[in-house]
Amino acid sequence: MLYSEQVMDHFLHPRNVGTMDDADGVGEVGNARCGDIMKIYLKIENGIIVDCKFNTFGCGSAIATSSMATEMIKGKPVEEAMELSNRAVVEALGGLPAHKLHCSVLAEEAVKAAIKDYYDKNGITYNPKLFCSCECDSCHLHQSPQ
Amino acid sequence: MKVYADHAATTPMSETALRTVAEAMRRLYGNPSSLHSVGQAAAAALMGARETMARYLHASPREIIFTSGGSEADNQAILSAAMLGEKKGKKHIVSTAFEHHAVLHTLNRLEKQGFEVTLLDVHTDGLVRPEEVAAAIRPDTALVTVMYANNEIGTVQPIAEIGAVCRQRGVLFHTDAVQAAGRLPIDVEAEQIDMLSLSAHKFHGPKGVGVLFARQGIRLSNLIEGGAQERGRRAGTENLPAILGMAAAFEEACLHMAENAARVSALRDRLIEGLSAIPHGVLNGDRARRLPGIVNFCFEGIEGESLLLLLDQRGISASSGSACTSGSLDPSHVLLALGLPHEVAHGSLRLSLSETNTAEETDYMLSAVPEVVAYLRQMSPVWHDLQEGKRHYVIQ
User: Fold this and answer.
1) Which residues of A participate in catalysis according to the annotation?
2) If you placed Cys at B59, which of A19, B54, B101, B148 could pair as Cys (CB 3.0 to 4.6 Å)?
3) Can you tell me the distance from the alpha carbon of B152 to that of B227, in angstroms, rounded to the nearest whole number?
């Protein structure tokens, strides 16, 4: 069996599929060339994620992790959602095959991208390092001051 | 309904093949190399199988080597031709961009040993041009290897024309006929083929057995050293039950080839017509020059693995060329060789039929596929961008 029961459940019956015209934050990560794109929409009231939706172009793992990620952040304060880790998503899904783990990383990044968008739209200050997902050697945010 | 539409991956064994294998396991247990009558009974059966395989390829029995399958045959054919060429200072090989990995990875190994490989363009229709083969041949070309029919998209190559070019230029010509054997009539003499690979499990025979045909006079190099089996060219006690099963299946397939091809082609055409109604989808490979049973489409805006999982849920077994299904980061090299962009190649679906499929099953697939494609599209950000004009359609 390629996927766990929970993964198949979230793949066949994904939660929170959809889009939002009036989203407070939208994050899109991945690229079609690689075969995985996740787009997450957030509705935030008083710092709580009251609703979230996702659209995903990708494999079974990609759809399942997007679905699980949106379930895990729904109803949570934004700061808590920021702490969503790909490991937590994988655990909640009962595990993923090793070569599919990158899908869960993408889900984590999509959530964070949506939150960053919300912060940017509302002029909320934040530590840019929280959203840095690139190689630290080359990232300008990590360069030590001269 | 359960529909098996992945015959290009493997086929269920025919009743004839099953009976033959079981009988052989029960009664013909002797080692064909033994002198006693138990062994010689096995040897006689082995000879019978060799003659059968040769007959339907229009070859001579002494030109047939039994192997563990298509991959082994490809490896031995190519490495043998390379060694023969190397002795004469010829270290160039011509092949195509969409060969099976058994061919491509063997060529990669030869490149590391100093061989130069030219991979011919297969264009947008998935067909090799004989004149391009001719243009690619150099004085130092040791081998041309072009697959008879492509396993992913089903296009059938101009093998006889290529055979003529190679024979005229004095270059060895090998063809990986794994997808064609048992489905198309092959005549190694008329088509001027020097070496050919085939595999039983593609034509309702058992898995783990195949044939390497090598024209008399071509000195093969061994992959496996040991006893004197297969004229000293492939050691190891012969897998007689599998070999007999293969011969029985091959004969059966060849005897019914015309009627099977007609039936399967009709189902295939029905499938192509129906799937062509799905917007922003495209049939991959030349419409006419194709195997009776293979249909490969790309549907823009969705990904292949999720397509397969949903079809499997509905009882339909199919395959795809997406990266997720290939296990690498790139989608199928075959689809990329056609010039399809990555994002479109990820959304591919291959359905491959055999004479065991029915019209009812075809109609069932035609009701399921559009539904699944539509479902995946409505949750795809790529599809929404296409619809809203934020991204341009690749497939009109």
Assistant:
1) 34, 103
2) B54
3) 37
CATH code at position A92: 3.90.1010.10
Query: Shortest CA distance to A57 belongs to which of A22, A17, A92?
Result: A17
Buried b (16+ CB within 10 A) or exposed e, B50-65: bebbbbbbebbeebbb
Pairing relationship of beta strands B64-67 and B141-145 according to DSSP bridges: unpaired
Number of structural domains (chain A) is 1
Distance CA A90, CA B233 (A): 51
Q: Phi/psi of residue B213, each to 5°?
A: -95, 130
Cα–Cα distance list, A85 to A29, A95, B77, B323 (Å): 16, 14, 51, 25
Question: Is the CATH number of domain B15-255 3.40.640.10?
Answer: yes
Residue matched to tokens 């699944």: B372
The answer to whether the CB of B184 falls within 8 A of the CB of B160 is no
CB atoms within 10 A of CB B248: 27
Q: Which amino acid is at A65?
A: T
The architecture (CATH level 2) of B257-387 comes to Alpha-Beta Complex (3.90)
Q: What residues of B are in contact with residue A27 (Cβ under 8 Å)?
A: none
Which candidate, B154, B147, B152, B127, places its Cα nearest to that of B293? B154
Residue (of B370, B396, B394) closest to B382 by Cα position: B394
A contacts of B349 (beta carbons < 8 Å): none
- Residue A51 domain boundaries: 5-142
Calpha distance B28→B40 (Å, rounded): 10
Measured in whole angstroms, how far is the alpha carbon of residue B259 from the centre of its chain?
A: 21
CB contact under 8 Å between A37 and B302, yes or no, is no
Given a contact cutoff of 8 angstroms between Cβ atoms, the answer to whether A4 and A92 are in contact is no
Q: Which of B1, B18, B15 is nearest to B357 (CA)?
A: B1
What Å distances lie between residue B332 and B260, B296, B343, CA to CA? 29, 12, 11
CB–CB contact B380 A57 (8 Å): yes
Judge whether B343 is closer than 8 Å to chain A, CB to CB: yes
Per-residue pLDDT of chain B (396 residues; tens, 9 = 90+): 999 999 999 999 999 999 999 999 999 999 999 999 999 999 999 999 999 999 999 999 999 999 999 999 999 999 999 999 999 999 999 999 999 999 999 999 999 999 999 999 999 999 999 999 999 999 999 999 999 999 999 999 999 999 999 999 999 999 999 999 999 999 999 999 999 999 999 999 999 999 999 999 999 999 999 999 999 999 999 999 999 999 999 999 999 999 999 999 999 999 999 999 999 999 999 999 999 999 999 999 999 999 999 999 999 999 998 777 766 778 999 999 999 999 899 999 999 999 999 999 999 999 999 999 999 999 999 999 999 999 999 999
CATH code 3.40.640.10 region(s) in chain B: 15-255
DSSP annotation of B181 reads B
* Identity of the residue numbered B247: A
Q: Which residues of B touch A36 (CB under 8 A)?
A: 303
